[in-house]
Please model this.
Amino acid sequence: MSSEFEADGPESDLELDYPLRIVLVTDDPKSKESEMEEILMDKITTFRLMHAFFDALDENVAIPNEGHIKYEVGSDGLVVIIVDSTKLKDDVVKFVEEYDQKLEVRGSVEEQEEEEEEEEEEEEKHVKSKKKKTKST
Model:
């Protein structure tokens, strides 16, 4: 069972040593200077989530803009993305922000589900202990 936020692999559940950081460089040939922006993706904490992020980035941004975008992933969690236009930079930023929001919503939903499961388990324990007390009296 896989979602858009998960990918499979031998190291998929291993934690990343560092949060995923993106340095987005706009190297527009028309401009004399490059622009640089840093984005922290601290919700991406495992290799599984990282691989899923790059699968989605490839599908939605990199492949449709092939030849205008390059990226390199370092072992320290640093990702350098180089684009050749401001519009493409804006597209990457928008994609990253939307992906991060989806992860945040997903994390909130998972936390809520975990809390509900814990409450149900506590309730079951309470009911079982009441049954034991009634049987023994």
Observations:
- Helices lie at 47-62, 86-136.
- Confidence is low (pLDDT under 50) at residues 1-8.
